[in-house]
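Ticket #4471: structure output looks truncated?

Reporter: J.K.
Steps to reproduce: submitted the chain below (269 residues) through the standard prediction queue, then opened the result file.
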Amino acid sequence: MYSTQVQSIGDKILALPLGRTAKDFLDYLVVEGGFSNNTVLAYGRDLKEFLEYCKSCKIHGLQQINPTLIRNYLQILAQDRISRPSTGSRLLKAPEPCEPFYLRDKAMLELLYATGVRASELAGLKTSDLNLDIGYLRCVGKGNRERVIPIGKAAIAATVEYLTKPDGRAKLVGSESADFLLLSRTGRPMSRIEIWRLVKKYAIRSGMPRNLTVHTLRHCFATHLLSGGADLRSVQEMLGHVDITTTQVYTHVDQDRLRSIHKKFHPRP
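Returned output as attached by the reporter:
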């Protein structure tokens, strides 16, 4: 039985050169292989990206696919992982536009990835806590401490869509919604547990490890900032850590990266 998401990715594949062959493979995984919808969806997304690359290279037949083409594609994927961390990019693509809560869930994931807020902080966020024109949000963390965190363009765009389109927040508003940003299907503010469950759902769908959590995104947020050159005090402030030694835990990933670069490129390792 096809899920809506598998059907959607299959239709997108069919619109591409070599799409019929790729779609037949997905059908085989479902009918003969008995693979889960999540696994087939992960295969489908990978195939779609490869076929889009083939299209850009004017590849229209299977006989044109050769080792050189595949090596070049793998090099592009490797560069993409360096410039755009795969954990976040794969997860952010997981919600499908055909789903009823697509705009809400996309905004939720984008905000988690862009700001490093805790699930409880995001659950408590109100629309009045956002300034999307300037690009920041204001949240209250542990110990009732308030902090301000910048928001990137992608998260702003996703949140604006959720707030302004008829099938976004407006569709969910009810008598108990108040000013809360993220609302459940019943119109109530989303809970911390609901946010955790949705992140887990999309992690599994995108082929990510089952143990990926909201805290994983918080960890990515911190390590990406430090790897990009942000100072430790600024990261501490954005994460809402009282003690900077808590923030220093995230520097180990960056140190490991520096060691690997040194080992690879220094003439005297």
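Triage note (M.O.): checked the attachment and the full token line is present. Confidence is low (pLDDT under 50) at residues 81-85.
Status: closed, working as intended.
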